[in-house]
Predict the 3D structure of the following.
Amino acid sequence: MNKYLKAALGGVAALATSVALTTAAAAEEFKVGIVTFLSGGAAESFGVPAWNGGQLLIKMMNEGALPAPYDQKGFGGLEIAPLVIDEAGGATKQVQEFRNLVQRENVDAVLGYVSSGDCLAVPPVAEELKAFLILYDCGTPRVFEEASYNYVFRTAAHAAMDNISLAKYIQSRGIEVSSFAGVNQDYAWGQDSWADFVASMGHLMPDAEQKTALFPKIFAGQYGTEISAVMRARPALLHSSLWGGDLQAFMLQSTARGIHERMRIALAAGDHVIPQLGQKMPNGIILGARGVNGLAAKARGGELTDLLWDAYIKEYGVFPVQAPFRMWQGLLGLKTAVEKAMAANGGKKPNADELAAAMTGLSWEAPSGTITMALGGGHQAIQPNAIGVTKWDEGSGQMTLDDVEYYDAECVNPPDGVKAVDWIKAGFPGAKC
Amino acid sequence: MEKSPVLVAAVTLTGLIVLGFALPDWAQFLMTIALAKGLVSLGIVAGMRCGVVSFGQGLYFCLGAYTAGLMSRWTGVTDVFLLTFLSVIVAGGVGVIFGPLLSRYRGIFFAMLSLSLSMILFGALAKTTSLGGTDGVNVAAPTFAGYAPEGGALATALYLFIVTVTVIIGTVMRIVFDSQSGLVSLAVRSNELRVEYLGSSANGIVAVSYVIAAILGGVGGVVTALAIGHVDPEYAFWTTSGEFVFVAILAGYLSIPAVFVASIVLEVVRSFSNLYFPNTWQLVLGVFLLVVILVRPDGIGSIKLWRRRESAGAAEPSA
């Protein structure tokens, strides 16, 4: 009897100690819910590389291995405790999971969402729960153009700049474009990208004739018909915002038929398939990466960029494409905001209100350049962009980006209060290039 | 001993309301969604009783959801009772149009045809950029006959609404299932030819069950849209419809409470597997389904406890 009592007491004591320990540890932790695609069509190209980059950076931040101004351990001394959730499953599921993260797991902030649909569905819930939310990847301009939020921020530029920069690059390089055609996926991203590109071309190269615009369905994988139609239309330039497996399949199928020898190809977000395609990505493709990301960032260099670039290659055996760069700028923005809020509140862990106040209008340095929360009342970031041309380097056996043009953030992003589509239609008034 | 369905409903409703206040916020929300989706699956169960499985309940789920989303966007109507009524009209109306057409088909033909109808809606919505295209539109927070709660109160109000709706519909369905035509639908399942010889129209019974399923789909859609606060064409996608079939199969057609229990179980398993196995949660979900199908081929409604309640004519949406 006594023995059992002792064991029971011991058990209770151990339990109490462990509870005390976890609460003690929890007090010094900053819990971040990370939501990105770990399965499905967007996992290989966006979700998994982003989370790889995220894990790497969080580890380095917790060790205090970054150069100034990011040299404090974790977030201002708080250990970063990430909690990752798969974004697959649709907006309904993501709203539920977001509530679970906030109400069940008590995270201090959520950083996530690649899909534009999720980026539109989750913010109202964050607002309702007064939970601090960073959208780190998705492209749709609608998030802060149709609504305004107190607790929601997006640390990456929206998608309008991708196609504006692309059109500017084509014009500035004197590429002969008598006509152009497009192959874009039949969903919001593809439709918006094409509309932005057509509108931008209408201003910059009004003589270029718009030929066929094709919208294969997302994850189609087979593009024989589209390739034939484009070859028959004979445009001087082919625009595409395809991504992931779709872009890989399209490039493999179209280059086998020599499409790149008959017309120039401009890919709004094409950098992320280079590691998979390697030399199968032909030379001379005009390429964007939704920011100064991947190869364009490497070409410019910088202490932080080189450090993370080398660490990523060492850890994963492949160079970082655009997705990890957006994860990095989100995490570094969060770190800057937390540390700013802690400086203001005397070093306590900041709550959502303090975080939101610190993040509004914030500006910080990331491997992808200076990120400024300039739009949507200080809630939507603008960032510089870069466009270049692919060139296979025989010596190193690697793909490089040649003739890179860097665009200032204010050159390719609309000013605050102006909708992206209206800004393009008006001919980019107030652009600082 | 026969128990009055109304009495059982009252007891269940009280129990669920008390439970709602005891549950933490996230669990209360999970219950709201699970019960709303359970209603859609209950519609499929109504079809399963006549031997047809609709793979296209996403159609009505989506119609109900978009009715709520677009009414609040266009006309500013946010009253939950009015929105529910309107989506019943819309979903039921569409169900009345397609019901007689689909009732001439059985088995895989019925399933595929109903699926194709929902995919037509998906395709149309995905193409319509004025309705947000594939990204969908946000839904304004609902009001309750003039009462406009916010935050936690809103979640609780929606929970109470769905609990009440669920218990009322569950009770009505129990009465419908036990009525003459409800029992004939079981006969359609076993031997359609005999039903026709006995003077009943098998097609008519299938059509009626399809319209009932459409209405339930619309109600489930409207509540889900209001709780989530966002609608997109994914509501009509075949994977969404598949989920409802999944729950219906998990529950089996023997018991009404089993449908809602199955729906809750699915949401709980998914929620926790997503958290603890972020890379393999689909696998966990699949294994769970396989185990249930192997152990309980007639669904969890075939567990004895619920069968006894079934024969007693009870409607209790939760254990």
Observations:
- Chain B has 13 helices and two strands.
- Confidence is low (pLDDT under 50) at residues 310-319 of chain B.
- Chain B touches chain A at residues 24-27, 29-30, 33, 126-127, 129, 132-138, 141, 150-151, 154, 224, 228-230, 232, 234-235, 237, 239-240, 267, 270-271, 274-275, 278-279, 281-282 (CB under 8 Å).
